[in-house]
Design goal:
- The complex is a heterodimer.
- Chain A is α/β, with parallel strands linked by helices.
- Chain A is built from ten helices and eight strands.
- Chain A has a single domain, classed as 3-Layer(aba) Sandwich (Rossmann fold), CATH 3.40.50.
- In chain A, strands 2-1-3-4-6-5-8-7 form an eight-stranded mixed beta sheet, sandwiched between helices.
- In chain A, helix 3 crosses helix 4.
- The termini of chain A are far apart.
- Chain B is of the alpha/beta class.
- Classes of the chains: A alpha/beta, B alpha/beta.
- At the A-B interface, strand 2, helix 2, helix 4, helix 9 and helix 10 of A face helix 1, strand 7, helix 7, strand 8 and helix 9 of B.
């Protein structure tokens, strides 16, 4: 098969045929091409779940780690080499459930990375249990009588904590999603996209249900208005708004002090420490002559 | 000289650490070796804690329990610690008390003479230095250094407070205090296990540490964060899971990275230990032991996590577990931990304990030469088609990092092919990959140091111990000799994988360890088939001492 771009690879996919994840994968590849990145400049980090397999399906550096723990790895990678384009690809179970705590603290740190959450409101890889975003009352395999607890609204939480780029995309609109990804990667600081990705195997609603409801934000929507953004993600409406929900003037990026005061370079490029420096520090532990 | 043991006792927040630090530095500057040891409760205010200073002309890095001098800062401390005073020892306190004691109402003196109660502790410091027969000059120099960045008035008041305390002790002491520590030529390093590990990590080229605060390992990240010139990116993580996750991410990205915690925190990290084994990313984890289970006794010491750490991680993979004996050893073991983690692309755990990390040990020399920092990265220019997990009989594949070159680096916690992609091909891909990882152990085992053997030739009894018990074991040999027992020591400091080693024939072996269930004994018996004649276990949260070993040995031997 001729390669459309240099991010294509020939690893066989484990996704269900027709899964909207394929659209997200295409959007990511197109975005990276548009951003003029080469595969060696890109590092994709994921945890576990169907979304977390995505890094295998394109040509780049990748770290497919533990369930829920993509963010700590990504933060360590970003701290070590901020020159890499670091992107976390995760799902609603991985990022909002198992790894929820890390997401909260990523909001505080503001690392210059992009987090893409495939949100399908279900645990697909384990065959259909409720996820943190499953609406209350909906039936899932364990929650046979309907989910008894409230869903988590992570975009709202991100906006409250001043995440500088919060967006919602839809896997059924890959071009729009690609534009969101380009803007997200360009944003300096944490950028976060919650992507509606209906599960065609275990999901309880047809793909068309989502397609009929998503609606791009109006051109006059003010992405800089934090209160409006919060209202937007909290309002119950027939329509699901997609687009950039909130974009803030840039705040200090994770590691800025180290980069400004200590060293700008990626950590592996720092000069080895001089043994004399250690010896001189040791003199501080020694009795006076 | 006969060693002099000073115990400073008081409530948390009352200042025993500051007093202890000033006194020990003064004694050190007077030319003596000091061993400082703290036992404290897990609280910031109240309780009764102690700070012991063992003074000698040569380093004696084990605690003495009985006190020549007890400085007690309050009535409760007098009551709790008075039984520790030796027959000819003295008590210095602000309270009126029976027997050999010097009463100096520190607070009253500070208030009356210097206008503020805040100088009470410096009065106490002066008194203690006076009772020890150390030149006031040496103390005044230390006070000048310590308060150098304070206002002149504060420095002057502290100077006067020290002088006042010194004079009052001198008056009260004439018949009671036989101690005399004139200035001598000795020069010693005085350093704790955590400080040595932090310096060792920096020397080894560690550039990233993430940790969640947990006694007794917090000082490692604190030291590295404070000393920015060492160029270590230090991050306080939201939990221990994130801490090790960040360290593994950093290491994957090409830098040497570590984390530090205690048993409970390590329990949270264990899934990531398995991840490091699977994705073959080197990482160094310091595990400071304290008594468990669960929260246990957070500020006390233990050797109770040996088997837990050795067996940590689901699935089968190789790891290295080292145990530091003292701060100098901890420095070198830290360098070794980073080197071997890199060489074999495995997780390495460095075991310490509260006794080692919190105590201040003396060394005449602190020679950092030894194993040099060495990295084992591949050369990207020499590789045409890069495969992160290229099969190799040694088990070690070429390691590059992302962004280093055009070569792509992919790692996966799933079983994977040579390029790091998920596989379900059991026969052709998964099995050879598992075998590749497991092949590392052959060479790794050869790199592990055998135990240290001490005085085995003459010995018919051999004390077998590990980690920070080393100095107590050695000191116990001398005490047992006085009881007519020819004993030797076998001391392990590289715990897993255990090296090829044969226990000598025709000796009686005793294990000595700070845990209840005899974890070292169990390990050695299963690996070397060695039979133990006796076992001495201490698990009350206090460190092993030569006295404890001697007493228990004599009580248990037939």
């Amino acid at each position: 098969m001729p390669k459309e771009n240099e991010f294509e690879n020939d690893v066989a996919s484990q996704w269900c045929p027709g899964c909207p994840n394929f659209n997200i994968l295409d959007a990511i590849k197109s975005a990276l091409v548009e951003l003029k990145k080469s595969p060696d400049q890109v590092c994709l980090i994921s945890g576990i779940g169907q979304a977390a397999k995505l890094p295998h399906y394109l040509q780049c550096n990748f770290f497919n780690g533990l369930h829920g723990r993509a963010l700590p790895a990504a933060i360590g990678i970003h701290a070590t080499n901020p020159q890499l384009t670091t992107m976390v690809v995760t799902g609603d179970g991985d990022c909002y459930g198992e790894g929820g705590n890390h997401f909260l603290h990523a909001l505080r740190r503001n690392p210059d990375i992009t987090v893409v959450v495939h949100n399908n409101e279900i645990y697909a890889l384990t065959k259909g249990q409720a996820s943190p975003t499953t609406p209350a009352g909906e039936k899932r395999s364990i929650q046979a009588k309907g989910v008894q607890i409230a869903p988590l609204n992570m975009p709202a939480i991100a906006i409250i904590h001043g995440c500088g780029f919060v967006a919602r995309g839809f896997a059924g609109e890959p071009k729009h999603l690609k534009d969101l990804l380009v803007a997200a990667v360009r944003h300096r600081g944490l950028s976060y996209i919650d992507v509606i990705q209906p599960c065609i195997t275990w999901g309880t609603r047809p793909f068309s249900w989502y397609k009929d409801r998503v609606q791009q934000l109006d051109d006059d929507y003010d992405t800089a208005d934090q209160s409006r953004a919060l209202e937007k993600v909290m309002e119950s409406s027939e329509k699901i708004p997609i687009g950039v929900l909130y974009q803030a003037s840039e705040r200090k990026v994770f590691g800025h002090r180290f980069r400004e005061i200590v060293d700008q370079r990626p950590l592996p490029e720092l000069d080895p420490i001089d043994a004399e420096e250690i010896k001189s520090l040791l003199q501080g532990f020694r009795s006076a002559p | 000289m006969h060693d002099v043991n000073v115990v400073i006792a008081g409530a948390a927040g009352e200042g025993i650490q500051t007093i202890g630090a000033i006194v020990s530095k003064t004694v050190l500057d007077q030319g003596y070796a000091v061993f400082t040891w703290q036992e404290y409760e897990s609280r910031i205010r109240g309780g009764q804690n102690s700070y012991s200073i063992r003074i000698s002309d040569q380093p004696h890095n084990t605690p003495l329990i009985e006190a020549d001098i007890l400085l007690a800062l309050n009535a409760e401390a007098v009551e709790k610690y008075r039984p520790l005073i030796k027959e000819n020892g003295i008590l210095i306190s602000g309270e009126s008390s029976e027997g050999s004691s010097i009463r100096i109402p520190f607070s009253k003196v500070a208030k009356d003479e210097l206008g503020k109660k805040i100088y009470a502790n410096t009065v106490a410091v002066g008194a203690l230095i006076g009772a020890l027969g150390i030149d006031l000059k040496t103390l005044q120099k230390e006070i000048k250094n310590r308060f150098a960045d304070k206002a002149d008035e504060i420095l002057e008041k502290n100077r006067l407070a020290a002088e006042k305390g010194y004079e009052m002790a001198d008056e009260g002491c004439r018949d009671l205090c036989p101690w005399n520590l004139p200035k001598r030529d000795g020069r010693f390093y005085h350093i704790s296990g955590n400080e040595a590990i932090a310096l060792g990590a920096a020397y080894a080229g560690c550039r990233f540490i993430a940790a969640y605060p947990m006694t007794p390992s917090t000082e490692i990240i604190t030291y590295l964060a404070e000393n920015e010139n060492l160029g270590v990116f230090a991050e306080q993580a939201e939990d221990e899971i994130a801490a090790i996750g960040m360290a593994i991410g950093a290491s994957y990205a090409g830098t040497r990275a570590m984390t530090a915690t205690a048993g409970g925190g390590f329990a949270l990290m264990v899934e990531h230990v398995s991840l490091a084994g699977m994705i073959e990313v080197p990482v160094v984890i310091v595990v400071g032991q304290r008594p468990g289970p669960a929260t246990g006794l957070p500020t006390r010491t233990s050797q109770g996590d040996l088997l837990f750490v050795i067996h940590a991680g689901h699935g089968e993979f190789h790891k290295l577990v080292l145990a530091a004996s003292d701060p100098l050893d901890a420095f070198h073991k830290t360098v070794r931990a980073f080197n071997l983690a890199d060489k074999y692309q495995i997780p390495v755990m460095l075991l310490t304990d509260q006794f080692l990390t919190d105590s201040g040990f003396s060394f005449e020399e602190f020679d950092i030469d030894g194993e040099k920092p060495a990295t084992f990265l591949a050369d990207p220019d020499a590789i045409e088609d890069y495969k992160r997990y290229q099969l190799d009989d040694s088990g070690i594949s070429p390691r590059l990092y992302p962004g280093q070159s055009k070569h792509l680096v992919g790692v996966d916690s799933d079983e994977h092919d040579e390029r790091g992609h998920i596989t379900e091909d059991l026969v052709n891909v998964a099995l050879p990959m598992a075998q590749k990882r497991l092949a590392k152990n052959k060479k790794l085992k050869k790199d592990v140091m055998p135990p240290q053997e001490i005085a085995l030739d003459e010995a018919d009894t051999v004390l077998v111990g590990w980690g920070s018990a080393r100095a107590a074991l050695l000191e116990a040999l001398d005490l047992l000799k006085a009881d007519g027992i020819n004993a030797g020591v076998i001391h392990f400091s590289e715990m897993w994988p255990l090296p090829d080693y044969s226990f000598p024939a025709n000796k009686k072996f005793w294990t000595i360890e700070s845990n209840a269930t005899g974890q070292l004994a169990r390990l050695l018996r299963s690996e070397y088939n060695v039979i133990f004649e006796g076992r001495i276990h201490r698990y009350d949260g206090l460190p092993l001492t030569a006295d404890f070993i001697r007493t228990n040995f004599n009580a248990k031997r037939k």
